[in-house]
Specification:
8 strands; two-stranded antiparallel sheet; alpha/beta; globular; 29% strand; 161 residues
């Protein structure tokens, strides 16, 4: 289980910290709580909008499209158990659900075009940042698994396809 912390500022309202957790095995992202901005919690991967902050990942305005796509991907995906949704919002984090702050503004050759409401708050953007991180983590984990399998194959070991 990977604990996540998104410290977000620069959008509507007061700066916010969104806390969540990603289960690597099932692919489930739980957005657990929203609070005022807080310093790094022990054991958390920190995503921040501040370029000078102590962080593991930077979230910038240009990442919004990718984050919105990740949100919809997670929202529409079923977890590895075949029953659970990949994205869950706990009661203490319901105000971070960005569903009401995202509007579809058409489609072009690259896919859907989204527009984020000017009223979208820092907590909603924090949830989007967690979704983006979760999708990136999954892609990196899949690539590393593939590299391990390729290494075993090149070493002459049996590999399952």
């Amino acid at each position: 289980m990977i604990q996540l912390q998104a410290n977000i500022s620069g959008f509507a309202g007061r700066p916010a910290t969104v806390l969540g957790a990603l289960d690597e095995e099932t692919g489930i992202l739980v957005v657990a709580a929203v609070t005022d901005v807080m310093p790094r919690r022990d054991g958390c991967v920190v995503i921040d909008t501040n370029t000078r902050a102590d962080r593991d990942s930077l979230f910038e305005y240009g990442d919004l499209k990718e984050a919105i796509t990740a949100y919809y991907d997670l929202k529409g995906t079923v977890a590895a158990d075949g029953r659970s949704a990949c994205l869950r919002f706990m009661e203490r984090a319901m105000r971070a659900d960005p569903a009401g702050g995202i509007e579809m503004d058409g489609v072009d050759v690259t896919g859907p075009i989204y527009r984020i409401s000017p009223d979208a708050g820092n907590a909603q953007v924090g949830a989007l940042a967690l979704c983006r991180y979760a999708k990136h983590y999954g892609a990196v984990a899949d690539t590393l698994t593939m590299a391990d399998e390729l290494s075993r194959l090149l070493a002459g070991q049996a590999v399952t396809i």
